[in-house]
Write a structure and sequence with these properties.
Blueprint lengths: L5 E4 L3 H12 L4 E4 L7 H5 L3 E3 L2 H6 L3 E4 L4 H9 L4 H4 L4 E4 L5 H13 L3 E4 L2 E2 L1 H7 L2 E6 L2 H6 L1 H7 E8 L3 H29 L4 H9 L6 H5 L1 H5 L9 H17 L5 H15 L10 H6 L3
Parallel strand pairs: 1-2, 1-4, 2-3, 4-5, 5-6, 8-9
Antiparallel strand pairs: 7-8
Length: 290
């Protein structure tokens, strides 16, 4: 049994898997959800539910968050019942894919209160969250990162420290930029194979073993050909990530035409009511062409 008590805000697709791995590693876990009934399964597995982020923070040594959007991060940390209202010392870790500038703001506010703050977004989707194999990208003070090794190791396999506050978010934006163009490539390759009369499953297996191999090809292309659009990662959240990346790139005076096109295609899917589908649903745009 670990003596460090973890507070966790966000029990969605990603958060639930991460919480279960923390429990498995022996950490006591306190949680907050807006609707208590949505946490019933986790409560039955040993989590303690609290009525607000500040209440969770007051009862926990380390507080982790993984919520939807930067506005949610801002509310969870800086709001009237936010984490920083209840936390006394210790460490806070935002694992949401969010704005680098907001990560820096939270870091400086936390620092003024004697709290260590890390931005630590993740990659690996619902499968990585469930299996504890996430890639975790961290920004903040390096000694704070090292002190959280056992916590991060319970949830992830690849733990990388990138630099000062905001660096984890910059690294995650790099990840999302790579995924966006790669997802278009995977969809186009499978659509082309199908139109050619090839067995798409054979194509996926063959391409995955060569230079075209990627996580999206190996893990999401099989879902594409089955018409499975269930979310491991929501389109609406991916659009949010792409928007943050494009805004950040504009600040750097960097043009990203591949990312711009990917966002345009995903915006079309969202407009057609598919924002709650998984990102692999982009294949539907190609498959529905006449």
């Amino acid at each position: 049994m670990n003596t460090t008590t973890i507070g966790f805000i966000g029990t969605g697709v990603m958060g639930t898997g991460m919480i279960r791995n923390l429990l498995k590693a022996g950490f006591p876990v306190n949680i907050y959800t807006r609707t208590k009934s949505k946490a019933d399964a986790l409560i039955s597995e040993g989590c303690q539910w609290f009525e607000s982020p500040s209440a969770v923070a007051a009862a926990s040594d380390v507080v982790i968050s993984i919520v939807g959007y930067p506005k949610d991060v801002e509310e969870v940390y800086l709001g009237d019942n936010g984490i920083l209202k209840g936390k006394k010392g210790g460490t806070v870790i935002d694992m949401t894919t969010s704005s680098p500038s907001l990560a820096k703001e939270i870091y400086h506010k936390a620092k003024s209160l004697g709290i260590d703050a890390l931005d630590a977004p993740v990659s690996g989707g619902d499968v990585g969250a469930k299996n504890g194999t996430l890639a975790i990208m961290v920004g903040g003070d390096e000694d704070a990162f090292k002190a959280m090794n056992a916590v991060f190791s319970a949830m992830g396999k690849t733990l990388t420290y990138f630099g000062p506050a905001g660096s984890g978010q910059y690294a995650k934006m790099s990840n999302q930029i790579a995924i966006a163009s790669n997802m278009m490539g995977v969809c186009e390759a499978i659509a082309y194979a199908q139109k050619s009369g090839l067995d798409p499953e054979k194509v996926i297996a063959t391409l995955s073993s060569g230079a075209a191999g990627s996580w999206s090809l190996a893990n999401l292309a099989p879902r594409m050909v089955k018409g499975d659009t269930a979310p491991g990662f929501y389109i609406k959240h991916f659009i949010k990530d792409m928007r943050i990346a494009l805004e950040s790139a504009a600040e750097m005076k960097l043009d990203l035409p591949g990312l711009t096109l990917a966002k345009k295609l995903y915006d079309k899917l969202a407009a057609d009511g598919m924002e709650d589908c998984g990102t692999q649903a982009l294949f539907q745009w190609y498959a529905n062409q006449k």
